[in-house]
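#help-structures
NK: newbie question, is this the right format to request a structure? protein is Threonine dehydratase
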Amino acid sequence: MQQTYRIPQLIDIKQAYQRIMAYIHHTPILTCEAINKMADCQLYFKCENFQKVGAFKARGATNAILKLPPGLKKNGVATHSSGNHAAALARAAKETGTKAYIVMPSTAAAIKKAAVRTYGGEIIECEPNLKARETTLEKVVEETGAAFIPPYDYMDVIEGQATCALEMWDEGIPFDAIITPVGGGGLLAGTALTTHYLSRKTPVYGAEPKGADDAYRSLKANKIIPMENPNTIADGLLTSLGKRNFTIISKNVADILTVSDDQIIAAMRLVFERMKLVIEPSSAVPLAAILANKPLFQNKRVGIVISGGNVDVSKLPFT
């Protein structure tokens, strides 16, 4: 794992973008007048659901692999993940000519396991708990010599995720606020860093389910409070906040807003019906937070990151 805690600077984020741009999509920003009227503000949706592997995770995983020294990369890379990081790392490994070993809980969605296999990743299943993930990963790393790339608590991953906001600011839109979902915190930390460097007065907000609100509670307490038994439809946000991520978030994020699962489902349905976009529940959390806090965003230009679109459409929560 990384030994340094050096926070990426703007030059690092710009170099990361140059490093990964051949491997990712420059995703569009879309607007919706109907939702703007409901929210009483001007929303700019950064559509990372159109990203490679269907999520922003492609940015961080690709950057992390490309920054590995050849000596470390030759034996492949490894991680534990039940979601988008698994597919992102498998794809990035394939694109950069190395092997990916992915430890996944036996309960992981079949659609996500299939994605990992499609990108050539080797899945090693384990019991569905953090201890089993970590011990299985340790064994895989020991046996293969693969380099461990964490899903979010890793500066090279945060640096890669920060390129999403870099693209947003490059559009020339004078955002009055930006909001992203927060689970492990890689996307929020990266977004906050880029915005701090490019528009220090623009507040960045995190949005989180009430059933997995460790980032909210940690920010209020000014120390990490791990999440125990999270319960939310936003399965991409079940992960506890990372230490490196918290270091950045605590200094650069204005607030974290929490919403109920009912509010998340309503916002998700709104995006499906009004914007015709396929998004996962985690992606709907920021919009739900804006609709629940209208006075905070009234008449403002708000950048909102749609973090991913990997959802089983046969199991939508509003059908």
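mod (FA): yep, format's fine, and the tokens are attached above. Strands lie at 29-30, 42-47, 77-80, 100-105, 122-126, 147-148, 177-181, 204-209, 255-259, 301-306.
NK: thank you!
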